[in-house]
Amino acid sequence: MIDRYQLPLDFPAAALRADLGKIAPSEWIPHFNKGYYDGDWSGIVLRGASGRCDTLHIGEPFETGFVNTPVLDRCECFQEVIAAFECSVKSVRLLRLSARSVVREHRDYDLGYEAGEIRLHVPVLTNSRVEFYLRNRQVSMGEGEVWYLDLGLPHRVANLGETPRIHLVLDLQVNDWLRSLIPFETPGDDEIPVLDMDPSLAAANLEKFRERVRLDLELQRTFSEIFDRQLFAEELVRVGRATGYDFNPRDVEEVLRSERRAWNAQWTV
Amino acid sequence: MDSVTDAGLSRDWMPGRVVWTDGAPRVEWVYFPERRFAEPFFEATLQTIMRRPFNLLFRHNTSMEFLEQWADTHRGIPPTGFIFHVSRCGSTLLSSLLGRLSGAVVLSEPGPVDAVLRAHLRDGGLAREIQISWLRAMVSALGRPIDASPGRLFIKFDAWNVLELPRIRAAFPDVPWVFVYRDPVEVLVSAVRRRGVHTIPGALEPALFGIELTDALRLSPEEYCARVLARIYEAGLRYHEPGRSVLVNYVDLPGAAWGQVAGAFDLKLAPDEVEVLENAAESNPKTGMNFSPDSLEKRQSATDAIREMAAKWLRGPWEELEVIRLCGA
């Protein structure tokens, strides 16, 4: 399954930005997932269940009865974006990640092509020092572009720049029109072939690769922000093999387990 | 070693704990770019740090000498003030409150600092100057600024660390401290009800409290806890230095945070900062600082054995502390 795709649509960046000017600073509300972020992560509800503007929470899965909020009435360009989608539009929010703020790796549950509901991102304001990672691979999104992202997979974002990053985020019900635009069923690149190799050789290779990573700040950054264990193992295998160290995901899992035991056993000093 | 950056330990790393290998202490480093201690205890923050799979696979293990070099090139915040305490006396409320101040870094019972402070009990031949140098390096490596401000570093030590106050004073001759204590019966009720590391015989080196393990195991729980706590009360009393340290009774909390403690630490709090502390101290279940005085409940549940041991071992130093606190010093 494809996990990211830029749709053949785009919207005028200047007009999108003009709508931002119609929103007062006090109207932004902090995101409810406080454990996930450092700095400021906040949003505005443009369309929500029962028209509630006071929570960024989408509500129960498959909630119905989405209506526009008074903020959307002011924003013509955002209305045009919504009107461009020939499918049922559920929740629509603006999400803002302020300068020098970070959202740590997490998954958005109750969402996905197979469940019949997908999320699209339209960057309204961004900068060159925004780093968005889906499954630990960067996605660069420009203002006015439209992106499908499978956010049920681990993802994170850091705004290392000096200006906010504001995205229009739309939750849509999948229909034939969306299926004609987005090749959901295209095979992804997430299959890691298991190598048939001697386990002790694999363990030795992993050990050497660990030593290499410990001394290499660039490689450290490749892995340090991954919290999902399965993704961590897969990424270690992918980058390890590309660097000349062959081992399998189960070798990583084994070392993670033994290191956890070692850490827990040595709690006394 | 050429430069510590070459060794793969950037500014985003921090000592997580000290382990002893072949008779020598080694530092285990963890990746912690946030540098924010959001939990009320260092150990709890360390647990969240270890949820990063990266730290299971790539943590570093270095000598104490490496730590000293690293601390030379990655400067920490000079300590603002130290908190010593008898345990179960409101000290965590105090340290959590100070953590609300802007730029504040609070190390609450940091294990790596305790390990350095007890290193001479593991290695009798350890030179005092070396231990003091390790202590400075460890505090510097843990207390790094979280933003561009100069920052304020507060350390709430483990209760038994007050016994090592002379070493701490030698390492940080200019840093003021407070000693927090509480009515002995109330502390003893809590200590017997739920043991701490220091009140479990043998969990720390017996030499620390001068009670041999074989003797400790023969004592009643009430008496063992009382004798350990007596050492801690006595140390707080013995090392008290008017002008540099301040005695804080539990009954003066939480106001002492923006009163006596702010004075002792020379915090020069602005009115809005005092307001932040006052609001944080108010009953608010969400902030976890729901400060509910429970002296009455604790006194009522004190057994005769607890009253007897509190009177025998703790009343003396407690009364002396109170005389100094109330008669001004």
Notes on the protein architecture:
The complex is a heterodimer of chains A (269) and B (329). Chain A has helices spanning 13-20, 70-74, 76-83, 176-181, 199-214, 217-223, 229-243, 249-265, and strands spanning 4-10, 29-30, 37-38, 41-49, 66-68, 89-97, 101-106, 117-125, 130-134, 137-138, 145-149, 155-159, 165-173. With 269 residues, chain A is of the alpha+beta class. In chain A, strands 1, 2, 4, 5, 6, 8, 11 and 13 form an 8-stranded antiparallel sheet that branches. A 5-stranded antiparallel sheet of chain A has the order 3-7-12-9-10, with no helix packed on it. In chain A, β9 (130-134) and β10 form a beta hairpin. Chain A starts with a strand and ends with a helix. Helices cover 44% and strands 15% of the residues of chain B. Chain B starts with 12 loop residues before the first strand and ends with a helix. In chain B, a hairpin with a 2-residue loop joins β1 and β2. Chain B is built from 15 helices and 8 strands. By secondary structure, chain B is of the alpha/beta class. In chain B, α3 crosses α7 (128-142), α7 (128-142) packs across α8 and α11 packs parallel to α15 (304-326). Classes of the chains: A alpha+beta (269), B alpha/beta (329). Chains A and B meet through α5, α6, α7 and α8 of A and β1, α2 and α5 of B.
For the largest beta-sheet of chain B, the strand count, sense and barrel status come to: 5 strands, parallel
Give helix % range of chain B. 40-55%
Largest sheet of chain A: 8 strands, antiparallel
Task: Bin the strand percentage of chain A.
Answer: 25-35%
Number of helices of chain B: 15
* Quaternary organization: heterodimer
Q: Low-confidence spans of chain A: pLDDT under 50, at least 5 residues?
A: none
- The largest beta-sheet of chain B arranges its strands as 5-6-4-7-8
Number of strands of chain B: 8
Spatial separation of the terminal alpha carbons of chain A: 48 Å
Shape by Cα distribution of chain B? globular
Distance between the termini of chain B: 49 Å
Radius of gyration of chain B: 20 Å
Structural class of chain B: alpha/beta
Average pLDDT confidence of chain B is 92
Mean residue pLDDT of chain A: 92
Order of helices and strands of chain B: EEHHEHEHEHHHEHEHHHEHHHH
* Alpha-beta classification of chain A: alpha+beta
Report the strand count of chain A. Answer: 13
